Amino acid sequence: MTRRHDAALMNPPVADRAGRAGRARAPHERILNVARELFCREGIHAVGIDRILAEAGASKMTLYSRYGSKEALLHEALRQEGAAWRTSFFAAVIAAGADAPARLRGVIAALDAWYRGGRFYGCAFINAVGEHAKGEPHLRALAGEHHRDILDFLGGLAAEAGYGDPAMVARQILLLMDGVTAALMVTGDESVLAVGARNLDAVLAQR
User: Fold this and answer.
1) Closest by CA position to 28, among listed 10, 1, 2, 52
2) Which of 61, 39, 198, 57 has its CA nearest to residue 130?
3) Which pTM does this prediction carry?
4) Phi-psi region for residue 118, left (φ > 0), alpha (ψ -120 to 50) or beta?
5) Closest by alpha carbon to 50, among 38, 132, 10?
6) Which pLDDT band, with edges at 50, 70 and 90, does 5 fall under?
7) Are residues 90 and 153 in contact, defined by beta-carbon separation less than 8 angstroms?
8) Which of 59, 106, 122, 173 has its CA 20 to 30 A from that of 22?
9) How far, rounded to the nearest angstrom, does the alpha carbon of residue 187 sit from its chain's CA centroid?
10) What average pLDDT does this structure show over 156-179?
11) CA atoms of 206 and 170, how far apart (whole Å)
C-alpha cells in the first residue's frame, strides 16, 4: 500500500501558512520558518533565496544582516528542525508505554505517527548531507549532534530497561530508524513499518 493523500492539501504553499499565522512575527523569524519548511519539503538546491523572501514577505537586507548567507540560514533551519523533531519523537516514544521496555517497543509506532502526520519528508539531516559534498564538515557535524541526542535518549531507555550494553542497543535502534525512514521516503510503502517492527522486536529480544 502506498501513501494516499493529496499533496496540495497536505502541503499548502508556505506563504499561506506564514501569512495566516506568522505575519506578526519578526521578518527574520518568518524567513527562518519559511526556509525550514521549503528546505525540508522541496530540497535545499531546489529552493532559492528569492523564493524564500517572497513567501516570507521579507527583504534581502534582513536575511543577510541576520544570517549572512543561504548556508548559514540552512544550518539554523536544520537546528530548529532537529530540535522540533526530537521533541515530538521523544514525546511519542514516552507516550507509547508506562515503562522503558514498552517505550522502546514504541519506536516504530512513533515513526508511523510521523509518517502519517502530514509532514514527512524523510530525515532532514540525511537529505541535507545527500545534497552536498559528503565531506562537508558543518553539515556532518550537525547531523552528528542530532544522532548523538537520539542515541542518548535511546541509550537512557535501554539502560533503564536493563540491557547490558545500552549504547549498542541504542545504535542498533537508530540504524533501524534511519533505514525505515529512508525506505519510507523513497518507496512510500507503508509495509516498511511492519518490517521495521519485526526487526525492532529482534533487537530488543537480545540481552
Assistant:
1) 52
2) 39
3) 0.84
4) left
5) 38
6) very low
7) yes
8) 122
9) 17
10) 97
11) 12
Give per-residue pLDDT as tens, 62-76. 999 999 999 999 999
Q: What is the pLDDT of residue 153?
A: 98
Q: How many other C-beta atoms lie within 10 A of the C-beta of residue 157?
A: 26
Three-state helix/strand/coil letters over the chain: CECCCCHHHHCCCHHHHHHHHCCCCCHHHHHHHHHHHHHHHHCCCCCCHHHHHHHHCCCHHHHHHHCCCHHHHHHHHHHHHHHHHHHHHHHHHHHCCCCHHHHHHCHHHHHHHHHHCCCCCCCHHHHHHHHCCCCCHHHHHHHHHHHHHHHHHHHHHHHHCCCCCHHHHHHHHHHHHHHHHHHHHHHCECHHHHHHHHHHHHHHHCC
- Evaluate whether 177 touches 111 at the Cβ level (below 8 Å): yes
* pLDDT tens track for 9-21: 334 445 454 444 4
Per-residue pLDDT at 157 exceeds 90 = yes
Distance CA 46, CA 113 (A): 27
